[in-house]
């Protein structure tokens, strides 16, 4: 787990090594100062030797200067290493998420992935910096101070040793109790981020239904959960400071009392006592720093696990060793296809589907909600893989193709139409980066989008807000269709992508498809019979099976489901899910 993350240090290895080296140098310089101070007091002040005071004082200034520069260098390299580590970690996570199949993405919430990329990485960054600096400095300072103290006086140094042992045990008990709360806290950030994301993205719906108060209560509850967990953790950690203060002052009193007696008995000098008191503070402050590092590491371990979970997630869909790099035509074939979203699912979503579609055909797909229409077309571009059988495009199994090649030739306009912030041209060029403005306009004319784009003051340079919130649902659908057309695919799939446009525009789009892209195989999923009845053939889906496949006239004669839907919509204007006569 830790090893997985440390791979991302990469080009910051030198900075990661330099940081602890500079911290050790700083500690060594600091440890010299109390020792030199004792020499000044005993051999300089008490002996009245001014030259010795100047000489040793000069050495102290040099040691302090070197320690200062080492500390500054350690801080600089530590910041560079930790910030670079976090940068690489975020980039690797983001790039790895891009390789996920839909099945992989389904395991995580959007808010959960955002939290991992932001809050969790920041926690790991802070822990890494503290590990490089404090986790090096504190043990080194503790060890050096103990050695110097024992070198001066073994009897008084035993006071430190006893204090360190007692304090270390108590601090470990406190931290172990606090750690479990930190591990509970970070998953709660997912709930809070989900609340914020959902509210902001659907703010129009929230206001339309006057749900501001309910949304505020939901957010307050998520925030309160985090507050309560951190309060419990902090209530445990709050004992650190008073315990440390008590130990420090107790050690100072004991050393001063015992040391004073030893000075009177001439077994200890005043300078040595001053040095021991300085080392006392170093030892106990090092212990305090160590406790802070352990707290930070314990907080970050939950984040480390969450990040590793994403990095270790292997995509269910991979390129073959020798992928096919060309899709010859738009022919489609399903051979005894079974599909389930989860491999351990008892009931598959698609069951023994067999279909053969010729290149250039316009195929309508109709079926009730939950009949697996979308699941069927998602298999063509390998957004999911079949659990049984084969799906062929251009006469080859889709698993044999290079995925980028396949997805460029099987263009999908999904149910949830998404536009990105930027101009209309920027959004259209998602279909083809090199598309000229004229090619974009032609695609928009085929999708019946050119007419409304030209009505905008800035035309094709009109800025689109994130998610396309400043255009209507029908306009958004037509822009997404135009974007897909720019890919010049062999297969074009419209997954209920004209539901928000009027029937006249819908008919014009289908007519443009028939005339302008006759060689492209077109699959149109729809709820309206009018959207598919002129297709070359129509697939009727029912409960994950193909219930009928033929022309409009053939299905009217032979398929009860299709005939019932046709009659219900032509007589009463109902949609697919309404029964005839209702």
Write a concise keyword list for the protein shown above.
single chain; alpha/beta; four-stranded antiparallel β-sheet; 19 helices; 12 strands
Q: Structural class of the secondary elements? A: alpha/beta
CA-CA gap between termini: 59 Å
Low-confidence spans: 573-582
Spatial sequence of strands, sheet with the most strands: 6-9-10-3-11-12
Overall shape: it is elongated
The number of helical runs is 19
According to DSSP, the number of beta strands is 12
Portion of residues within helices: 55-70%
> What fraction of residues sit in β-strands?
5-15%
Mean pLDDT: 84
For the biggest sheet, the summary is: 6 strands, mixed
Gyration radius from CA atoms, angstroms: 35 Å
Structure description:
- The protein has about 575 residues and is an alpha/beta fold.
- The protein is about 60% helix and about 10% strand.
- The protein is built from 19 helices and twelve strands.
- The strands form three sheets. A six-stranded mixed beta sheet has the order 6-9-10-3-11-12. It has a four-stranded antiparallel beta sheet with strand order 2-1-4-5, with no helix packed on it.
- Strand 4 (about 390-395) and strand 5 form a beta hairpin.
- The longest helix has about 50 residues, at about 50-100.
- About 35% of the residues are buried.
- The model is unreliable at about 575-580 (pLDDT under 50).
């Amino acid at each position: 787990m830790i090893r997985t993350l440390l791979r991302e240090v990469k080009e910051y290895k030198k900075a990661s090594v330099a940081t602890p080296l500079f911290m050790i140098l700083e500690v060594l310089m600091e440890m010299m100062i109390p020792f030199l101070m004792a020499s000044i007091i005993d051999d300089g002040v008490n002996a009245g030797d001014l030259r010795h005071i100047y000489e040793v004082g000069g050495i102290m200034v040099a040691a302090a200067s070197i320690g200062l520069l080492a500390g500054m260098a350690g801080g600089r390299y530590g910041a560079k290493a930790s910030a670079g580590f976090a940068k690489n970690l975020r980039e690797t996570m983001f790039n790895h998420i891009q390789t996920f199949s839909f099945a992989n993405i389904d395991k995580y919430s959007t808010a959960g992935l955002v939290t991992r990329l932001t809050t969790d990485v920041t926690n790991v960054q802070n822990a890494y910096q503290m590990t490089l600096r404090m986790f090096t400095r504190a043990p080194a300072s503790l060890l050096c101070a103990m050695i110097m103290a024992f070198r001066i006086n073994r009897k008084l140094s035993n006071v430190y040793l006893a204090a360190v042992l007692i304090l270390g045990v108590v601090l470990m008990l406190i931290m172990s109790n606090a750690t479990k709360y930190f591990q509970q806290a970070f998953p709660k950030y997912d709930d809070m981020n989900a609340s914020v994301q959902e509210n902001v993205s659907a703010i129009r719906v929230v206001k339309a239904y006057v749900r501001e108060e309910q949304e505020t209560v939901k957010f307050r509850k998520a925030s309160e959960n985090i507050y309560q967990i951190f309060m419990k953790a902090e209530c445990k950690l709050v004992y650190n400071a008073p315990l440390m203060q008590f130990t420090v002052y107790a050690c100072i009193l004991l050393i001063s009392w015992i040391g004073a007696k030893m000075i009177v008995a001439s077994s200890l000098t005043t300078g040595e006592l001053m040095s021991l008191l300085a080392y006392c503070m170093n030892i106990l402050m090092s212990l305090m720093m160590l406790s802070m590092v352990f707290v930070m590491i314990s907080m970050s371990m939950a984040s480390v696990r969450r990040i590793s979970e994403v990095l270790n997630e292997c995509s269910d869909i991979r390129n073959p060793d020798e992928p096919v790099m060309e899709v010859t035509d738009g022919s489609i074939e399903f051979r005894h296809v079974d599909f389930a979203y989860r491999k351990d699912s008892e009931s598959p979503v698609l069951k023994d589907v067999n279909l053969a579609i010729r290149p250039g055909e316009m195929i309508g797909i109709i079926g009730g909600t939950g009949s697996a229409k979308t699941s069927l077309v998602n298999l063509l571009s390998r957004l999911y893989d079949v659990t049984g059988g084969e799906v062929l495009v251009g006469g080859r199994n889709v698993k044999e193709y290079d995925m980028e090649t396949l997805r460029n030739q099987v263009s999908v306009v999904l149910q949830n139409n998404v536009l990105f912030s930027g101009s209309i041209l920027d959004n259209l060029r998602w279909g083809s980066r090199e598309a000229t403005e004229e090619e974009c306009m032609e695609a928009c004319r085929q999708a019946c989008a050119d007419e409304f784009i030209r009505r905008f003051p800035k035309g094709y340079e009109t800025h689109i807000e994130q998610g396309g919130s400043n255009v209507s649902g029908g306009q958004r659908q037509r822009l997404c269709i135009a974007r897909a057309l720019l890919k010049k695919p062999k297969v074009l799939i419209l997954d209920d992508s004209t539901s928000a446009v009027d029937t006249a525009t819908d008919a014009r789009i289908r007519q443009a498809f028939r005339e302008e892209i006759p060689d492209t195989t077109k699959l149109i999923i729809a709820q309206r019979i009018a959207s598919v009845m002129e297709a070359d053939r129509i697939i009727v889906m029912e409960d994950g099976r193909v219930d009928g496949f033929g022309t409009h006239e053939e299905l009217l004669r032979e398929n009860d489901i299709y005939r019932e839907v046709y009659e219900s919509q032509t007589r009463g204007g109902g949609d697919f899910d309404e029964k005839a006569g209702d």
